[in-house]
Structure formats: C-alpha cells, structure tokens
Amino acid sequence: MECAARGIVEEPCASGAHRRCGSCGAVAYCSKGHQFIHWKVHKEECARLATQMSRIDMLSQFPFTFSVEPLALNHTNRSMRCLFLESMKVHLKGLWKSECMCGPDIASVKDPSITTEWNMERSLCPCTEPENPVPAPLASWEDYFQWRSLPLHSPVAVLLHWPLTLYHCLQLSRVRTSRYDGHDTLHIHYLGPEKELLQLAVFAELRALFPGVHLRIELVGPAVPRSRDGEVVNISSYPNCSGESCHCRSSIASENLNCSAVTLRIWKGLYHERYGDIVKDSNPHLILAPNAGVAAYPSWMPTIEMIRGIGVPAIFTDFCEEAAHLASCCISSITGQPLGLPIQVNPFRQPIEENNSALYIPCYSNGFVFGM
Ligand SMILES: [Zn+2]
Ligand SMILES: [Zn+2]
Ligand SMILES: [Zn+2]
Ligand SMILES: [Zn+2]
Ligand SMILES: [Zn+2]
C-alpha cells in the first residue's frame, strides 16, 4: 500500500505505509506528519470510505466452496491469483491465460483466432446447450449454477462474470427485444474491453441466457490492438471441456439448435470517435462500459456527453464503490441529473478480489453497477 499523502506532500515518504486512518481504515500513511497534512483532503472522504469498508464481509460472500485464500503464501512472489489458478489446474491454460499478471497482454497477442478451451472436465464447465430454458430472471450465482447443473467448487464464475454481468445489466435496463425492433436482435455497444478480448469465447454463454435472440456486440475501446480493428467473431458453440468424447467436440453440437447466435465486432478507438461508423449498422439497445474508470480517464467526458445526446440507456461498472462514487459525480456534472440507476452491488461480480494499491476498500472486477 502507498502512503495516501504521496503527491500532495513535498518531502518524500518514509518507506512503508503502515499507519491506517483510525476512523475508516481505508487509507494508509508512512508517518504521523503525512497523515496530519492529508487530513484536509481526507476529511471529505473519510466517512464515505468507512461505509464502504463496512461492506467487506458482504462483498466477499459467494456460494462457492473453493478457497481463494493462498494455500502457501510463504512461496512469495506468486500472486494470490496465480496460486488460485494453479490450485484449479488452469494457470496459463486456455481461456484462463489472461487471468493473472503472468499471462500475455492484449497488445502482444497477434493471432486473432479465439481461445475456446475451458481446460476442465465436463462436469465443471458449461460446454453444451442447457438442459432447461433459463428460468427468468437469474438473480445470483446460486441461481446460475443450479440452472446449469454446475457444482459450487467449479471456478467458471471467474470467467463467466463477463457475460453474466452483461445479462444482469440488460435486466436492469429493462431492455426487451420485441419492444425495440421485433426481429429479436439485441444490439449492445460494449465500451473499453481489455482482457475480455482474449476471452471472447465466454460470451457464448449469452446464447443460453437469451434463447432465440441474436446478440450483436460492438466492442470498442482504446486498448484494442490496431491489428484487430474490424475483426468479426461469430460464436455459435460453447467453449470446449477437456473430455475427448464429450459431444461439445462433435460437429452436431456446433449446429445452431436454438437459433441463438452471438456476433462480436471489434473496433479500435474511443467510442465518441467511432460511434458514427458503428451506428450505421448497429443502433444500440444498451451501452455497457465494464470496469470503466470514468473518473480516472478524462476521455470519458466527451463519450458521456455524447451518450447523453443519443438517449440510450448506459450502464457502467467499476471495481470498487469509491470509483463508482467518483464516476457518478463526473456523470452528474455533465448531465445535471442524479444517476438514473443508482450505485449497487453486482451479484455477478468476479468472485476473486482484486488488488488495490491505493486503498484498502474491497475491489472486484465488475463489482458495482450504476447507470445514466
Ligand atoms: Zn507519506
Ligand atoms: Zn479515514
Ligand atoms: Zn500467474
Ligand atoms: Zn464438453
Ligand atoms: Zn478500486
């Protein structure tokens, strides 16, 4: 953890920031002096951070029976994520490759063919059509795992939080396909994709979640490598399990039985700069910006300005409640209105905590949801 006063104090910090604010416990300081100086900044946020800290236990509640605690932290230099993935025997394998820091980064992957391997036995992952239609609406990971007949020791939620968060946001925005165009195509504009670009096959699960619907997802963001601009990915089957004889590997499985399909199109650039091209072929029902960091990147401001103008429901997620709070301030300053969808916990957040180098507050990929 870094000293919270770093950047606003003139003299350098002492090594190590071990003094935590006694009121919120969310920030740390290298010295009493730095804590004193920082109070003029921190007093505005201290009570709010204290409330966020009080949700640590609630946020860490998941139905899963696997343990995310490090098995052997005395093996230093290994992150908790790596140890967890190793314990699940999926470290640096298949779709899991980019789940930890040792995996490839988005820019370095030149081969656009998408990874479609769960690297898990059949009973642990959804590799075929669901046995029953989706009971609407799924409200939690318990609901999802029960419907898909998956055991609670399976870690697939770590990857499936992408499509399930999209599903949840569509429920929240009350988008109904028929109400819009009657031909059962849902258009999503998905802003700021990062490691999802190396895990695109997990969006196949949307076929099971929206039977009979064609989902068109336009992924647009500055992290898209130039070589992938314009790439189209059609998904008509689920990622494969490791079972050699499982029928997810036969050609019959890839035949489109429930006529759902997911088409992903990839665009490099900022949304407000590419929107004119994207919208020619895809008028959005929902704009989704996962793990957006609205307050951290000034380039969001013209994008939010534009979204306000086009009047399409837009939902954002962020890692922690404080980021969501700061984003809501930015958004309201542009729209002149409070959020249309107030900040709330995402039941389909990723079930492994993220490291946060600046605050002790709880932090999860797709942790909190809010919307214009
Ligand atoms: Zn300091
Ligand atoms: Zn405090
Ligand atoms: Zn690793
Ligand atoms: Zn299979
Ligand atoms: Zn955070």
UniProtKB/TrEMBL annotation:
Residues 1-46 form the MYND-type domain. It holds the Pfam family zf-MYND. This is MYND-type domain-containing protein. Gene3D superfamilies: 6.10.140.2220. The keyword Cell membrane does not apply. One of its GO terms (molecular function) is zinc ion binding. Keywords: Metal-binding, Zinc, Zinc-finger. SUPFAM superfamilies: HIT/MYND zinc finger-like. InterPro entries: Mss51-like_C, Znf_MYND. It comes from the Eukaryota. Signal peptide: none annotated. Transmembrane segments: none annotated.
